[in-house]
């Protein structure tokens, strides 16, 4: 999809009604963003201001540079989970350095058009990713529910009741925001032994300022941050691509995914320079933005700007929000993120699909590395696919008595996984005077397949058998002429 200035301009302003819808949807999206960004910051082990600064900066930058209009991006749970280990081991400065490097990786991925690699992520892997993310988000809340008084459990239960019951009455205001307001008011009016957001760290008191991470610029630092940066980049792009695809379906439009990769990278570089954590597309907030009427880039910009406009003057009140409210919200996020239908599909879908999904979940939960889980899932998907295609390859053997010719008719795909089976079907000491290998219903995919064919032909000719290869399609013939000319040399 090539860049068009007129289309880009239309994504900013499509008329007064569309602009009004974008502004209102962006403002509502901000209120849905605040509690989750604070909660995700809590998961990553950083001050809330780090996540809020990041969401503010990312929202502004990606509104201009991203590929998917109406998509809300910010400090998200998937990236926070990856970042938590780095923060715990080395501290915030190294996280900011990893954020910068992750952004550079993403810009490189976008410029190299590596967004096409998303095509190799099967539905089973995506489902496993989502389910593992949900499990990790929930498990991150468990420490906040251990060794606490009954007041915390009561507040969490009340928060969940508000989150799930209020939408049945009204959806004008996001129920997580109502949960925060009500639980904060109760904790202020009825003093209880509860942890608050103020106990988690600093909240923003002013606009973020430009600065360089306070880490040594040497190879040791690179060795520390590079693995985390690569994981953050991969996980962020995966969730952003998934979110963009959801918006594509909701709006029945398309978006340039490579531009989204590059735009997210630039946004994360800016976030790191302004003291924020790396972020990505946020599925829940994006879907809410679209359903509230957001369609253009203006809604993304408003969500980012309005976030800081609201947070700075309300800092005193936000500091008094009980952690129980955040735990309730994250439990809701976990439950809504999990693809519950996938459990039912385990008995309906092919077993290999279920195995890929479960393996993705198991590896991710065991390693707390979303990128590792996706990598294993993609690898298994490829192995199972190759195995399936291999079983579809066949070599039928016939005999023409008139010409004393053995005929080998090959059907299916011959490649590295099926080449050995292909070669084993030939009798290299055939008693017939001549052999014809018919490839009209077959395709040679790689040099392993070509090498196997060459070995068969050479061995037969060494034993005095006249070998003729017929029916190669154009692509197979080019590969053979380039790498195994002996095959066609009578």
Which overall shape is indicated by the principal axes computed on the Cα atoms?
elongated
Question: What proportion of the residues is helical, as a percent range?
Answer: 55-70%
Biggest β-sheet: strands ordered side by side in the sheet: 3-4-5-6
Q: Tell me about the largest β-sheet.
A: 4 strands, mixed
Order of helices and strands: HHHEHHHHHHHEHHHHHHHEEHEHEH
Question: Would you count the extended β strands for me?
Answer: 6
Number of helices: 20
Class by alpha and beta content: alpha/beta
Write a concise keyword list for the protein shown above.
four-stranded mixed beta sheet, elongated, alpha/beta, 490 residues
Brief rundown of the structure:
This protein has 490 residues and is of the alpha/beta class.
Structure in words:
The protein is α/β, with parallel strands linked by helices. The protein has helices spanning 5-12, 16-44, 48-65, 77-90, 92-111, 123-139, 150-169, 175-189, 219-251, 257-273, 283-291, 297-311, 315-318, 323-337, 341-345, 351-367, 370-391, 419-424, 447-462, 474-483, and strands spanning 73-74, 280-281, 394-400, 405-414, 434-444, 466-470. Strands 3-4-5-6 form a 4-stranded mixed β-sheet. Strands 1-2 form a two-stranded antiparallel sheet. Helix 18 links the parallel strand 4 and strand 5. Helix 2 (16-44) packs across helix 14, helix 3 packs antiparallel against helix 12 and helix 7 (150-169) crosses helix 14. The longest helix has 33 residues, at 219-251. The model has no long low-confidence stretch (mean pLDDT 85).
């Amino acid at each position: 999809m090539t860049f068009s200035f007129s289309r880009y301009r239309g994504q900013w302003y499509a008329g007064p009604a569309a602009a009004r819808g974008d502004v209102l949807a962006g403002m509502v999206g901000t209120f849905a963003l605040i509690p989750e960004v604070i909660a995700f910051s809590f998961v990553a082990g950083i001050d809330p201001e780090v996540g809020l600064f990041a969401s503010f900066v990312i929202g502004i930058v990606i509104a201009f540079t991203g590929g998917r209009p109406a998509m809300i991006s910010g400090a998200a749970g998937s990236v926070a989970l990856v970042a938590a280990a780095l923060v715990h081991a080395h501290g915030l400065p190294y996280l900011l350095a990893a954020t910068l490097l992750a952004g550079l990786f993403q810009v490189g991925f976008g410029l190299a058009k590596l967004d096409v690699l998303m095509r190799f992520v099967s539905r089973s892997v995506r489902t496993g990713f989502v389910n593992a993310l949900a499990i990790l988000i929930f498990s991150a809340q468990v420490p906040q529910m251990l060794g606490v008084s009954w007041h915390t459990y009561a507040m969490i239960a009340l928060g969940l009741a508000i989150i799930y019951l209020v939408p049945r009455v009204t959806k004008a205001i996001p129920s997580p925001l109502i949960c925060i307001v009500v639980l904060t008011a109760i904790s202020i009016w009825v003093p209880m032994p509860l942890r608050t957001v103020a106990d988690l760290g600093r909240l923003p008191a002013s606009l973020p300022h430009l600065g360089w991470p306070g880490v040594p610029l040497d190879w040791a630092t690179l060795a520390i941050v590079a693995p985390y940066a690569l994981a953050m980049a991969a996980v962020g792009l995966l969730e952003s691509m998934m979110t963009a695809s959801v918006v594509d379906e909701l709006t029945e439009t398309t978006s340039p995914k490579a531009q989204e990769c590059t735009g997210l990278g630039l946004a994360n570089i800016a976030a790191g320079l302004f003291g924020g954590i790396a972020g990505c597309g946020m599925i829940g907030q994006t879907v809410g933005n679209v359903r509230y009427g957001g369609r253009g880039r203006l809604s993304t910009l408003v969500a980012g700007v309005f976030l800081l406009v609201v947070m700075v003057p309300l800092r005193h009140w936000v500091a008094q929000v009980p952690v129980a409210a955040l735990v309730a919200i994250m439990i809701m996020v976990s439950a809504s993120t999990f693809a519950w239908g996938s459990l039912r599909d385990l008995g309906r879908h092919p077993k290999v699909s279920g195995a890929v999904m479960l393996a993705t979940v198991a590896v991710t939960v065991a390693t707390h590395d979303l990128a590792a889980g996706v990598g294993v899932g993609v690898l298994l998907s490829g192995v199972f696919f190759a195995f399936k295609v291999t079983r579809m390859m066949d070599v039928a053997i016939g005999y023409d008595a008139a010409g004393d010719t053995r005929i080998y008719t090959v059907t299916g795909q011959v490649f590295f996984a099926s080449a050995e089976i292909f070669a084993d079907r030939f009798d290299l000491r055939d008693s017939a005077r001549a052999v014809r290998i018919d490839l009209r219903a077959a395709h040679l995919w790689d040099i392993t397949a070509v090498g196997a064919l060459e070995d068969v032909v050479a061995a037969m000719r060494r034993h005095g058998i006249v070998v003729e290869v017929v029916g190669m399609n154009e692509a197979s013939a080019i590969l053979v002429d380039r790498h195994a000319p002996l095959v066609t040399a009578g």
